[in-house]
Amino acid sequence: MNVIELKNLTKMYGKSRGIRNISFNVEEGEIFGFIGPNGAGKSTTIRTMLSLIYPTSGSALIFGKDSVKFAPEIKREIGYLPSEVFYYDNMKVKDLLKYSASFYKKDCSHRISQLSKMLDLDLNKKIDDLSFGNKKKVGIVQGLLHEPKLIILDEPTSGLDPLMQQKFFDLLKEENKKGTTILFSSHILSEVQKMCDRVAIIKEGELVKVEKISTLKENNHKRFKLETKMPVSQGFFQMDGVQNLEVKDQITSFLYSGNINSVLEKLTQLELTNLWIEEPDLEEIFLHYYEKENEDEYFSP
Which of 72, 177, 250, 272 is most buried, most CB within 10 Å of its CB? Predict the structure, then answer.
């Protein structure tokens, strides 16, 4: 069963680019990733499918129901964390969460206490006194306090330190074990790789591909940057899997996909003074997807 079905979902902002013809399904019990660079259209897609803004055309079904016609009914079963959270500054955290819980017509006090302890959130503080990261924690508790069937997270980890991010991922895995479906939007590939079964890739308002994470891992990329005593010739790294090769004096950099041992074998032939191996950014990783798309088909900015 599909919990989310998007069919040619489109949102236009006059002549400005919005999203166009977004179509993908999220199955019940799945952790589904939604990734793309900042400004690609992830938040617009999520807000449109939740009927926080209305589509220009196309449709979104959630739990098999039209998200516009049945919005109030659907939203009772959804936990949503937007990319940016804004609250009444003078309220205490516990009052805000109590007010949020009142919409669901059930006692959420134990759940609020449990989640707050897990995330190390002080319920007695005023919203105004919280750091950005702690405001994000409030948003997480607010989104999960009613034990929703579907959790939708838009860039959820911004502002959380690495330890808290791991606690948050553990929390999501626990919710998923109970049967909860999760849509996880991010521009950070490593987060999505940790959490998700499948992923939809978006760029400039259009869906590029829906892919299994296992397939992405098979095609995993690394960015190499090396410093050598003598400049490396352009032809030295002419091998399968090398992209974006740049040589400038003693510094050589490139993106590599394939068996990492092949590159390391090449490196043993050089006199290195320094070496960096990094996770490339999302734009670089999906360059081969993006280049296949005809840029003329995208909306003009």
Answer: 250
Give the number of other CB atoms < 10 A from CB of residue 5. Answer: 18
The alpha-helical segments, DSSP class H, found in the chain are 42-49, 71-75, 93-101, 109-118, 132-144, 162-177, 189-195, 213-218, 260-267, 282-285, 287-292
For residue 6, the enclosing domain spans: 2-217
**Same domain assignment for residues 37 and 167:** yes
Joined together, the tokens standing for residue 275 give 């070496």
Domain of 203, CATH number, reads 3.40.50.300
Q: Is residue 26 in a domain?
A: yes
DSSP string, 28-93: TT-EEEEE-STTSSHHHHHHHHTTSS--SEEEEEETTEETTTTHHHHHTTEEEE-SS----TTSBH
**Same domain for 102 and 9?**
yes
Question: How much of the chain, in percent, has pLDDT values that exceed 70?
Answer: 91
Distance, in Å, from the CA atom of 73 to the CA atom of 53, rounded to the nearest integer, reads: 17
Domain count of the fold of the chain = 2
Segment of 68-72, 191-195, 242-246 carrying the highest mean pLDDT: 68-72
Is residue 158 located within the same domain as residue 274? Answer: no
Beta-carbon contacts of 282 under 8 Å, excluding residues fewer than 6 positions away, are: 35, 36, 37, 187, 188, 189
**Residue 7: helix, strand or coil by DSSP?**
strand
Statement to judge: residues 139 and 246 lie in one domain: no
Asked if the model's pLDDT at residue 292 lies above 80, the reply is: no
Spatial distance between the Cα atoms of 238 and 218, rounded to a whole number of angstroms? 21
pTM for this entry: 0.78
- Strand 2-13, strand 57-62: pairing: antiparallel
